[in-house]
Amino acid sequence: MKIGEVLVQARECLRSYGIESAMLDASLILSHVTNLSKTQLLIHEDDELDIEVVDAYARLIEKRTKGYPVAYILGYKDFYDIRLKVTEKTLIPRPDTEILVEKALSLNPKGRVLDVGTGSGAIILALKKHLGDQIEAFACDIDMDALEVAEENCQALNLDVTYFESDFLNCVPNEKKYSMIVSNPPYIHPDDPHLRESSLPFEPRKALVSGYDGLEAISILTREAPAFLENNGYLLIEHGYNQAIAAQRFFKAAGFNFIQTIKDYGGNDRVTLGRYTKNKE
Fold first, then answer.
1. How many CA atoms lie within 13 A of 8 on its CB side?
2. Is the dihedral of CA 194, 199, 201, 204 positive or negative?
3. What are the angstrom distances between the C-alpha of 258 and each of 11, 48, 207?
4. CA–CA distance from 83 to each of 13, 78, 92, 255 (Å)?
5. Spatial contact of 181 and 116, defined as CB atoms under 8 Å apart
6. C-alpha distance across the termini of the chain, in Å
7. What's the Cα-to-Cα distance from 4 to each of 48, 57, 260, rounded to whole Å?
8. What is the pLDDT of residue 143?
9. What does the pLDDT look like over 15-42, one tens digit per residue?
10. Distance between CA atoms of 8 and 204, rounded to whole angstroms?
11. Phi first, then psi: what are they for 206, rounded to 5°?
């Protein structure tokens, strides 16, 4: 079969399963199988494909019809301006998380910056790339498989990040404080219907769901972070679209000031942050 014919069939198949990104997905997956860019696929649309390639492509398209994420098929996801390896052991970075990175960069942190629950390393690696030697970058995660992926991404990007295995902040050294702590923790309610939609059924549940109400991780982070922050250090946390009021309440109870919530690209509340000022002795 010709490249153009294979693409048309794949797009029609994906559309029949209600996949809105059918055209893009079909092209990305064929590029992955053939090692041809999307432009090259257009230029060579009349070229014949080997039957082995067609069969391999069909198997991946079938996986996609069942909701399997394109990022896991390709083995990578572009985030901010970096390319990250992702696996089924890591959450797939979302564009909404870029809001957290943008806000963190606008605060121009210096010194030690910590990413809690780093997953593939998206947040801390984006910050380190843009801030360079201005910060010392640290990251932690409870999942060793995720940490391995984060370290691979770090090495591939030739960046310097120190990693810890830690459940939240339990095993993070705090002899030296941090000027900023950032986190995209699990925050989905266990009964949220979205867990059965899109790519979420294929992603690690422990990176998505938090406690009985989706707020446990946010509560823990706001409560524990002050002991790790420098005077006037910042905490930034991503959360669900309907969790801003609860998040602000946790920040206030923990003693943070200058608390604010930032909206994502869709106009939904997405990141809450606050500054922690230690009491004068």
1. 7
2. negative
3. 49, 61, 28
4. 28, 4, 12, 37
5. yes
6. 77
7. 9, 13, 50
8. 94
9. 999 999 999 999 999 999 999 998 999 8
10. 32
11. -70, -15
